């Protein structure tokens, strides 16, 4: 385990001064206790690590950094409060924390204490400082070096570098009275104390001041488990509307990964219809018949059923990567359906091996059934080969563990589940639909005439 507290000396680091990070590196899974999972480890750590003023949030390190840089929130979900007064924002956050903590699926809710830090204030009396010939900057420098220290040099130990910090001993700065008695020398050589030119006291203040759209802001960090983000946000909004009324001039909005989800939903509402329209247009250009387009697109709902079933069985929630998996699944299933329909159409066109333009009209249902079977049997092996190839390619991703598995499993699950149900649709239902539709000889004649054209 590797621990860190505070933040880097960089304007790009959004971490507050009081943030504690502990990175845990697991042993290889074959060395774990039998039957234990990451969920069990997290639950046991939550039971044993309960510190006053510290809230546990279990997320991946790189994912935490990306979320913090993008949204400023290090948990999967958060609430962004905005208003005029930091003290009021902190009290609002504490009230919302109490309301949301009992909800199902909540691991932790922590409202930032934006105004709860303690500071040593050195309030300089300008008139007294002027009498002693001291400037404001010189008093600040003395107080900063005496209390906080200053790096004066650096020591080199092989490949290691250590700064040498110079400041007053702890006994001279461990209380307010000792700070007030810090000795100072005036330009004339007179010895005075810090209390002679400044008032030293402790006051409350913010650990960091954040703004959102030029307004002061505070954040509530929420970590949930076993629930979909959209469902939780809907329930939380209902609780807040029924049991809490925001003061005038204050507002809140949901942040974190929920923002990504909402943006992705807005894009998918455009991308998915456009994808289906493009597939339908290409199918119509291929077959020139509305019936074939409808049959090819009808495979997609059956494929979605298999994908949704496997998602439910694996316990995955709907997300952006799941949507990507479903889009890929739609392309594969429609391809299998097109492959089957091409050979069914070829069989029903009934071109004779001797080169005749057209066989005699089908006079008996059994003859129609035999033609459909002839076309369908020729596509069993290619369809099964396609399904097997997809399964061999995606099963390692579905069963993998380790870095990146959270994403790959959710892309592979819709395709693995949907490819089975779409295979049944392709091999069983499409031939049946063809037999039902072309039992009317007029439709069969139209098919043959369009194929000749």
3D structure, described in words:
This protein is an alpha+beta fold. It has 3 domains: 2-115 and 209-260, Alpha-Beta Plaits; 117-205, Multidrug efflux transporter AcrB TolC docking domain, DN and DC subdomains (2-Layer Sandwich), CATH 3.30.2090.10; 288-452, Multidrug efflux transporter AcrB transmembrane fold (Up-down Bundle). It has helices at residues 38-48, 61-71, 86-100, 126-131, 136-147, 176-180, 229-243, 257-287, 290-314, 320-349, 365-399, 405-437, 441-452; strands spanning 2-5, 20-23, 77-82, 106-111, 117-124, 150-157, 160-166, 183-185, 191-193, 198-205, 210-212, 215-224, 251-256. The strands form 5 sheets. Strands 3, 4, 11, 12 and 13 form a 5-stranded antiparallel β-sheet that branches. It has a two-stranded antiparallel ribbon with strand order 1-2. A hairpin with a 2-residue loop joins strand 6 and strand 7 (160-166). The radius of gyration is 35 Å and the shape is elongated. Mean pLDDT is 80; it is low at 351-364.
């Amino acid at each position: 385990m590797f621990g860190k507290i505070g933040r880097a000396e960089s304007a790009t680091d959004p971490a507050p001064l009081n943030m504690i990070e502990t990175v845990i590196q697991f042993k290889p899974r074959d060395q774990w206790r039998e039957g234990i999972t990451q969920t069990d480890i997290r639950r046991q750590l939550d039971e044993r690590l309960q510190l006053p003023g510290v809230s546990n949030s279990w997320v991946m390190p790189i994912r935490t950094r990306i979320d913090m840089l993008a949204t400023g929130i290090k948990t999967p979900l958060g609430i962004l409060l905005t208003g005029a007064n930091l003290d009021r924002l902190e009290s609002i956050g504490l009230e919302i924390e109490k309301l949301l903590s009992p909800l199902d699926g909540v691991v932790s809710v922590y409202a930032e204490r934006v105004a709860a830090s303690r500071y040593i204030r050195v309030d300089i009396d300008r008139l007294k400082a002027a009498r002693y010939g001291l400037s404001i900057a010189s008093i600040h420098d003395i107080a900063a070096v005496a209390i906080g220290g200053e790096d004066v040099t650096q020591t080199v130990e092989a490949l290691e570098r250590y700064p040498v910090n110079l400041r007053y001993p702890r006994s001279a700065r461990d209380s307010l009275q000792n700070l007030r008695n810090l000795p100072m020398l005036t330009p004339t050589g007179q010895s005075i104390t810090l209390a002679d030119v400044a008032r030293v006291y402790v006051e409350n203040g913010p650990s960091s001041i954040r703004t959102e759209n030029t307004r002061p802001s505070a954040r509530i960090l929420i970590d949930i488990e076993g629930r979909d983000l959209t469902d939780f946000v809907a329930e939380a909004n209902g609780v807040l509307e029924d049991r809490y009324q925001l003061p005038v001039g204050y507002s809140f909005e949901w942040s974190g990964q929920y923002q990504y989800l909402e943006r992705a939903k807005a894009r998918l509402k455009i991308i998915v219809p456009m994808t289906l329209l493009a597939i339908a247009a290409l199918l119509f250009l291929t077959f020139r018949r509305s019936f074939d387009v409808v049959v090819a697109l009808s495979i997609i709902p059956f494929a979605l059923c298999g994908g949704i079933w496997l998602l439910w069985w694996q316990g995955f929630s709907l997300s952006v990567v799941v949507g990507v998996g479903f889009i890929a699944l739609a392309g594969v299933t429609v391809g299998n359906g097109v492959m089957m329909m091409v050979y069914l159409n070829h069989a029903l066109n009934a071109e004779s091996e001797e080169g005749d333009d057209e066989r005699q009209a089908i006079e008996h249902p059994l003859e129609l059934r035999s033609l459909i079977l002839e076309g369908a049997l020729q596509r069993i092996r290619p369809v099964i080969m396609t399904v097997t190839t997809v399964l061999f390619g995606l099963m390692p991703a579905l069963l993998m563990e380790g870095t990146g598995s959270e994403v790959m499993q959710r892309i592979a699950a819709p395709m693995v589940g949907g490819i089975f149900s779409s295979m049944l649709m392709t091999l069983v239902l499409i031939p049946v639909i063809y037999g039902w539709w072309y039992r009317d000889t007029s439709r069969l004649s139209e098919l043959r005439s369009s194929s000749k054209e």
